[in-house]
Amino acid sequence: MQAIFETTFDVIYLLSIILIGFYMVFKANDNIYFKLFGIMAIVLGFGDAFHLVPRSYALLTTGLEDNAVALGIGKFITSITMTFFYVILYHIWRFRYNVNNKQRLTIIIYILALSRIILCLLPGNDWLNYYQPISYGIYRNIPFTIMGIILIYLFIRESKVNNDKYLKHMGLAIILSFGFYIPVVLFAKTYNWVGILMIPKTLSYVWVVYMGFNEIKDKNC
Prior knowledge:
Elements: H1 2-28, H2 32-60, H3 68-96, H4 103-121, H5 134-161, H6 170-187, H7 198-218
Helix pairs in contact: 1-2, 1-7, 2-3, 2-7, 3-4, 3-5, 4-5, 5-6, 6-7
């Protein structure tokens, strides 16, 4: 039952988010803001596919532990692509609110992203082992979480100041994504049922993308 439900959900999610991404890229024309939204959606979809496709295969065949290598590689790639996702989202914020300075903030975001990637590359992550050390799961998510907190603050502040009807809930969507993700990092290996939180986490990311999609649709770009 779990295998069928998860696989169905993953197929619908991946196809939808990737198609929406390409739609936004093609409809954006010379609008960099909408094009970034589309690229972000494509990065999200293809990045998640590296983890979700092996997971679905494992659930439908011999189980997760027997497919630890494929799952580990997929999880590693997804960790990297999600870092790019948030870097792109930062630049969406800059274009959305015409931020032409804040070079120091940009440097901080890139340092955090680079730190996250370096931490993901460390052998201590033991990506190919099904029972990966929780400690490294925490280490690599520290700069990732700081990036998220910064973006939450930036979007909440600017959307309120600019009375932005399209991105007014962006901060909330990011909060929810981390709220569902952090318990998985900390407890999924101890309590298997915690893994179900990845579904609302994924829906939070869909909401992030949908905000841009909804605007480009309304403006008939």
